[in-house]
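ERR on first pass: missing label on line 2. Operator R.T. fixed the label and resubmitted. Corrected input:
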Amino acid sequence: MLRASLHAVTPRPKNKYRKVIAVRKIDPDANRFRKIVRGKIRENLKQYVSQGEILARKGKNLVSVPLPQIDIPDFRFGHTDQGGVGQGSGEEGKPLGGEQAPPGPQAGDQPGEHILEVDVTIDELADILGEELELPRIEPRGSDSIQVEKQCYTGINRTGPDSLRHFRRTFKNALRRQIASGIYDAENPCIVPVREDRRYRSWNTKSLPQSNALIVYMMDVSGSMGNEQKDIVRIESFWIDTWLKSQYENLETRYIIHDAQAKLVDSHTFFHVRESGGTKISSAYNLAKELILKEFSPSEWNIYPFHFSDGDNWGGDDTAQCLELLRETLIPFSNVFCYGQVKSAYGSGQFIKDLREAFGTDEKVLLSEINSRDEILPSIKTFLGKGC
Amino acid sequence: MMDDHLLTPEIEEWRRTIRQYALDASLDFFEVIYELVDYDEMNMVAAYGGFPNRYPHWRWGMQFEGLQKQYSYGLSKIYELVINNDPCYAYLMRCNPLVDQKLVMAHVYGHSDFFKNNCWFSHTNRKMVDTISNHAVKIRRHIDEHGLEVVEEFIDLCLSIENLIDMYSPYFSGGEHTSEEVKDQERIDEIGTRSSVKPYMEEFVNPPAVQVREKKEILNKIEEIDNFPSEPQRDVLHFLIHHGQLKSWQRNVLSIIREEAYYFAPQGMTKIMNEGWASFWHSKMMTTKILDSSELIDYADHHSGTLGSNPGMLNPYKLGIEMYRDIQARWNSGRHGSEWDSCQDAHGRTDWDNAEGRGLEKIFEVRRTHNDITFIDEFLTEEFCEQHKMFTYKFDRQQGQYVLDGRGFPEIKNQLLEQLSNCGRPRIYVESGNYGNRGELLLKHDWSGTSLRMDYARRVLENLEKIWGRPVHLETIIDGKTKIFGYNGSRHEERTGS
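pass 2 clean. output:
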């Protein structure tokens, strides 16, 4: 199954030479492995595919890179029973610490048979998600109307700043000139470029159509939303993010939390805020509406509001207000409006029923009930499976 | 070897020099052929277990991807790769600076000497490069005939049990060859013949036709009544090759996997010694002869990177090199033998030196005759453990993590030996190939204090059942009780054994 945490993925550093290399002997094996991991072939091995990760350093941050691996079963010892021998200072009873925790016995007769792993980049993750859930490609709207100018360094110029000097071309020209004029000495090859030899990179301007998307995550943080509920929201948001990012070049995300009042917050707050207070869903919808009107014109942006709650709204006319807000503004603005209801011990779960009653036939309103972690994937499929 | 793998003139010159230094140090090695490779070629060869020609299988790809990943994130890089073969093949990473190339070459001569002289490698195939290529050809042929999917699936089954070999059998005469058939044949020969008084009476006393019939009967009887194997067999793969219900191509695949497992086994049995030996010599040659003063810092950095141990971890390179140094020092000053052992006087011990001077000789002897287990058993001393701050750790269930357990010498030594025995894997025997008189397979786990991971074990049983062709069982001890786990092709069962 697919699993990752928010910080868990970094794209693989691009190796520009990779494509130049002719087919390597090992490529068929590597491809076959990737196919097995993705469940394309050898279904019977799928049970042995597990998620691993390695910790890597990127800039200042430690990132963990997910690595699925295939673990062929063998007779082995139950891990936690085993002790071992180590080296270092410390008192009796001192914990060895998480990262130093020994990974079982060290000796083995082959180089790392069962521990090696392979990575999946964020693009691949999106692909896998797409394949796994059979998600359709999204047809962006408004794409023709928006043109973005981009500068690409694709040309060569005889003049330019030194910082853009093309060393290889410069060197080649100098070499060519020296050979042509007979100064070149093969015994003592000394290439000195002169001004005429210098070449510089230069740019061309291209205009590209661009598609923009805005995701507005709204989460109920009232007293009834516990940690488990928020974890579910967090995991689901990550995967939605991953998929939409693979579909849109320019993806903006905004986070709104609400209890009886709504607030625009950053992603950290969104995922870490403590729960309290009552619930007034209309506050969040109002804020979303204002946000869109102010910053993201619906004609230029593909807008995806996602709202997660346990379905317990304040009594009175708040639900009526919500429905009106949705009908009048939010739904017309959006590509789709998604509401996910997380099951909690306290919530009545009434809100989804109200929505179903009001918009049951509307294709742009997608409703999903998420009772446990296992239902996250089906829920994503409900939300993104329409391809609009 | 392709031309672009040739050493540069500078490295080639150093190779000659270092080779001469190694000879001067009386290392006795297989000739080493170095190839210069890029990082992805290096990773590829490493993924193939050192051999550029292997049969197609996804696990090489898995290892390759892992290595590429680790390299591209700067997490780890393979410095050195050497194959036990005559001649030895070793790979140098093209992008490494000269000081690293020197270090690796010096290190490799240590390995090559170890391969050639350590007795646990004595039975290994020294033309393994050719053999492994032949294996690849054979398996490709099976794939052509039966399809990739089918062959790969069978290989995967075999990988589940590839460790179930008897690592010590190659060292006993004929251990490989006294199969059950041979023993049965001997028995039949004995029983089935009536001794004839006169040679000319022979064909009347023992008419050939009757003899054949009788032999057949006896053979059938043995099949029926004998619980074979007659004694528990460690080499489960051998047993399966000869008695499992396999097609001939499957038998061939399984024996290829077994042969390769035997080839690699000594490297697991001598990890500490082998790496320690190579590190000992690279360190000695680099610091006394090879290094240019400008390279000192880089060398020190890389050397300590290899030998450094994380707090709380034991690095086999480090343990190995320090043990050799310790042995050398002890045999130089005569700190061994009964006189030394009986000396209780603290001052006497610290000042002990009878100028025996046999240190170097001793470590050469040690590298010839020992494996990791006997090495630790014989030469790990209390002083050494103390000096290197060794400790034992255990898993604390309450805290849910590993904690430092103690610093007692007997415990450290025991733990280390336990960890090394059978390369840290459970010992599994074939107990019976006719379990319950139903032709079912019974394996027995020789329990030594640690339980098996049963979720994995059940899956192994599923795989084994496909190879054996009949229900399979495993006897082990869980929570102090003897249990027998069985799998009959459709479901698992578990019962308490006697």
